[in-house]
Amino acid sequence: MTTYQQTLADVGWRGVSFQMVNKHHQSQYYLLYGTKHHLGMRVFKEAAWHIAPDGQFQYSDLRNPDQIGFLRDVNEAATIDDLAETLVNSYKGKAVGKVELDEFTDSHPTAKLTHLRKALDQLERRIPSAIEEVIVPNDKKRREGTFPDGCKVKFAS
Predict the structure, then answer these.
(1) Is residue 108 classed as helix, strand or coil in its secondary structure?
(2) Contacts by residues 62-70 (CB-CB < 8 Å, ≥ 24 positions apart)
(3) Torsions phi, psi of 70, nearest 5?
(4) Mean pLDDT, to the nearest integer, of 10-27?
(5) Which of the chain's termini has less CB crowding within 10 Å, N or C?
(6) pLDDT at residue 53 in the model
(7) Are 11 and 36 in contact (CB under 8 A)?
(8) How confident is the model over 98-130, as pLDDT tens digits?
(9) Are 119 and 87 contacting, i.e. CB atoms less than 8 angstroms apart?
């Protein structure tokens, strides 16, 4: 599976897989979604998180519905942490527009736009040295923890 995904990536495609598990709890097959456009990734990940709210991008008939809420919270937190770390490492010392951050999130293997807002909020509130400032157009006031369209986020060096 990873070889196929890497081959797609080598020619400019982005791919996300979704695992289908049979009644014996074995991988039956993988659905692989591929696209060249960031909006395609956005739509697929929204659908995948809806079908598999635990963030595992996997469907199984044997899943215990009582465990999904717990797994969702754990995996969503891990996704947000990973996205936050990736943002800091990728944009260290740069001011980046909200549109570019949205597109960056679209290319992340599992994060969706709601995770971006949470990752930025986490960086601003819990790791204040990660974001130098948030620049809002027309010098409008901004509430902490919000990242309106048109803003730029300046990451610390």
Answers:
(1) coil
(2) 62/21, 62/23, 62/25
(3) -65, -50
(4) 81
(5) C
(6) 77
(7) no
(8) 999 999 999 888 899 999 999 999 999 877 789
(9) yes
Q: Contact, 147 vs 117, CB < 8 A?
A: yes
Whether residue 31 contacts residue 51, with contact meaning beta carbons closer than 8 Å, is answered with: no
| Model pTM score | 0.67
Q: Please report where in the chains the tokens 């891990």 appear, as a residue.
A: 78
Q: What is the pLDDT of residue 30?
A: 83
Question: For 59, how many CA atoms within 13 A lie in the half-sphere containing its CB?
Answer: 12
**Distance from CA of residue 95 to its chain's centroid?**
20
**Tokens 């960056």 belong to which residue?**
104
Give the pairing of strands 14-21 and 58-60.
Answer: parallel
Three-class SS state of 33:
strand
The label of the residue with tokens 């130098």 reads 132
The predicted-structure confidence for 26-43, as pLDDT tens digits, reads as follows 888 888 888 899 899 899
CB 134 within 8 A of CB 148: no
